[in-house]
C-alpha cells in the first residue's frame, strides 16, 4: 500500500512548513496536496484511527529514550540508581515473599546486597567474574545478583528446572567461577557435582537439611552474617552499557544461550504481583527491576498458584499483576471466589494472552487494562499494546514507521530464508501478510542496540544485513507476526528450532541431541505440535487409531504427568513430539521415560513419540497422537 509512505511525506511537510513560519491553513493545504498526490484517501482513515495512539506511543518512546541517554551519559548503573531509592525511602517495603511472609525493606535489601558485594570481594573475586545463581525466587535471589552487580561481577541466572547435562552445559558456557544454589536444589547439584570441576566454588544458601552440606560446599548465610553491610569503599567503574547478568534463553538457534542483559533493559512499571520465575527476563526485569529503579514494592511467589492468586493480590494490595498466557487460562478455570471481586488490580502486564479469552479475563476479574507486549530478553524490537486492542501484542506507527525502525519482512515459509528484491533488500510485508519481525540495529541507541550472546556464532546467526537499506544491520527475532492496516501486530508463530511449552522455550536441537545419545545415535526429529481443544480430541484420537492400524507407524503416548494439572486439551503453546527411527521395534518407551526424567527439564521432555522405520528430516508428516484422558 503506497498511502502510508505518501502520508509520512505529507506529515513531514506539514511540520516543516509550520516550523518555517507558514500559517497552519497553508501548511495543512500543502501537506494534503502532497498526500493526495502520493497515495490516496486510505491514509486519512489510518491517521484518524491511530493518531492518538501513535502520539502517546511517541511520547513514551521519547521519554524512555531521553531517560536512558541521561543515565548513559552519567554512567549510572542499577546499583547507583538503587542507592538513590534507598536514600529516599529506606523503610519502604521493597520485596515481599508471599510463600513465607518474609518482608524486606529497601534498607534491608541494601544491607544484604552490600554484604554479598563485600563477601565476594573479600574472597578474591574481581569485576567481570561470573557467579551462577541456582535457587528459587525469593528476596535472597534479588539480593545476590544485586550485590554481585555492586561489586562489578556478573550473575548467571540458571533455570531451576535444569538437570544433569543441560545444567552442566549452562554452567560451562557462562564461565562461572562460583555457584550459589538454594538448599531446595542441593540434590540436583549433588548429581552433577563430580562433573563441575574442582575450580568451581560452591555456596549453599538457606538452612541445611538433615542430610547435611555437600562436600566442597560452603554455607553462604554464616559468611554473609560476618560480612560488612556498608557500601564498598571503592565501587567498580561500571557504566549503564556494561553487563548486568546473564539470562539463559533457548532462542531459535539451538542450545540455550546466555543472553546479555544490559542495564538499559529496565523499563518503568507499576507495583507488581510477580509469580513468574526470576531466572527469566519477565520476572526479573519487568518485575523486580521496577522495585530497584522506581522504589515500588514487588510481591514474589516462587511458583504460580491459581487458587492463591487473587487472595495474594487482596492481602498485599497489589495494583498490577504479571502473566503469561497460561496463567490467565488457569485463573478462568478456577471457581468464582470472593477474592476475585475484592482486589485492586487495574493492570495486567505480560504476553501470550489468547484473543479468545482476552475479554472474558478482563470482564470477569475487572482488570481495566491489559498491557500485552512482545519482546525477547535480548531483542531490539520490543512492542507493547498501549490502548487495549484485543489480541494485539503491540503496534508500529503507519504514519511515521521509521521513528521506531522495526519491520515484518517476507520469508520462505518452508526454510524461513529471507526473501529479497532485485536490489538485494528484504521485502516488507503488506497489511495482513505474516512475516518475520526484524529490528534495525543501532549500537548508539539503548533501545535499538543488540548486545548478543556469549557465543559469537550464536550472535552472528541473529543478525542479517541490507534489510532497510544497503549495508545496514538488523536483528532477526525468529518470530512470525502479522500486522493489520492500522499497524497493530499479532503474534503468529515461532520459527526456527524452538517451540514454547508451559511458558518455557524448548530447544529442539538440545532435545534431539539428548534423545539421540540415549538411543545410541539413533536418528531423531523433535518438533512442537498443537494440542487440540476438547471438542476435537475424540475425533483426533479415533483418526490416530485408524491411521496406526493401517500403517507401520506407531504412535505412543510417552507419559501422562504433564496433563495431570487439568486433564484437558487446548493447552498453551505446542507439546513436544519426538519422531524416532525404530525399524525393528526395539525401543522401550518406559525405559526412555526413566532416562529422560534424569537429563531433561520437565517442560523439555517430549509428550508424544512417533516410532518410524526411518526419520524423514526433509519434511514433516501429519502428526498422529493419542490423548491420555481417553484410556
From TrEMBL:
The keyword NADP does not apply. It is found in: Endomembrane system. GO terms for molecular function: long-chain fatty acid transmembrane transporter activity; nucleotide binding; oleoyl-CoA ligase activity. Residues 1-27 form the signal peptide. It catalyses: a fatty acid(in) = a fatty acid(out); a very long-chain fatty acid + ATP + CoA = a very long-chain fatty acyl-CoA + AMP + diphosphate; tetracosanoate + ATP + CoA = tetracosanoyl-CoA + AMP + diphosphate. One of its GO terms (biological process) is long-chain fatty acid import into cell. InterPro entries: AMP-binding_CS, AMP-dep_synth/lig_dom, ANL_N_sf. Residues 82-419 form the AMP-dependent synthetase/ligase domain. PROSITE patterns: AMP_BINDING. It comes from the Eukaryota. GO terms for cellular component: endoplasmic reticulum membrane; mitochondrial inner membrane; plasma membrane. Keywords: Ligase, Lipid metabolism, Lipid transport, Membrane, Nucleotide-binding, Signal, Transmembrane, Transmembrane helix, Transport. Belongs to the ATP-dependent AMP-binding enzyme family. This is Long-chain-fatty-acid--CoA ligase.
